Amino acid sequence: MDVTVSVIKVNPRAEVVFYGSVTLARKGDEATAARFTVLPDGAVTNVNTLPKTLVQRL
Question: Has residue 56 been placed in a domain?
Answer without folding.
Answer: no
